[in-house]
Amino acid sequence: MSAQIVPMHPSPNQQPNGFGTFGCLAPVDITPLDALLDDIHRTQAHILWLEHFIATIEPAQVFASPAQTTTSEHEQSRFSKPTIQGTPRVFAQIDRRSKATNQSLRLATHPAITTLQSQQAHLVDACYKATMLGIKLDQIDFSRSQADRLLAAIQSTVTSLGHDQSDPTVQSIIEQALQTVQNG
């Protein structure tokens, strides 16, 4: 039985399942703001899950991770030891676990906590970007509405003065006025 060769880029009439391509063949019709908002919702869901997971971690596991002793006591005494705030009960649990497993424990933050912190920072960054993009889009919409109102005012003035808007001379004057406004 020979192995089946799967083309890197399937032909247009093939229906890709998206698994091997991670969706890169699927057309995506999304605005940048919608993409940022989707990212914000996903990140918030990650944060909620991590917060729930961290709530289930025993206090003794929050700041301790097992590590084999690779340095002598003399080498360890040369380096400063990290100081972590915690209750004496937590440190007693860490010490008991260290003696029971015959391993030294180095104080370190649980990976779920560091992941939570990075996700929170990412959420703040994504919210900032979405806010800035929203402000830019609002400015563009405002500029467009201002231009539409200005054109309507000019056309209304031309009509109220009894001129025909389809007259080439009138259209030329309107274009010159709009160019003056655009050039500042």
What does this structure look like?
This protein is mainly alpha-helical. It has a domain at 32-145. The protein is built from six helices and two strands. The longest helix has 50 residues, at 111-160.
Attribute tags:
184 residues, mainly alpha, 4% strand, rod-shaped
Compact description:
The protein is mainly α and 184 residues long. It has helices spanning 32-55, 59-62, 73-78, 88-101, 111-160, 168-183, and strands at 64-67, 104-107.
Produce the secondary structure layout:
Elements: H1 32-55, H2 59-62, E1 64-67, H3 73-78, H4 88-101, E2 104-107, H5 111-160, H6 168-183
Antiparallel strand pairs: 1-2
Total helices: the number is 6
Report the strand count.
Answer: 2
Largest sheet report: 2 strands, antiparallel
Give the CA-based shape: rod-shaped
Query: Roughly what percent helix?
Result: 55-70%
The strand line-up of the biggest sheet is: 1-2
Low-confidence stretches: 66-85
Structural class: mainly alpha
Tell me what portion of residues adopts beta-strand conformation: under 5%
Q: What oligomeric state is this? A: single chain
Distance between the termini: 75 Å
- Cα-atom Rg, whole angstroms? 32 Å
Order of helices and strands: HHEHHEHH
On the 0-100 scale, what is the average pLDDT?
A: 75
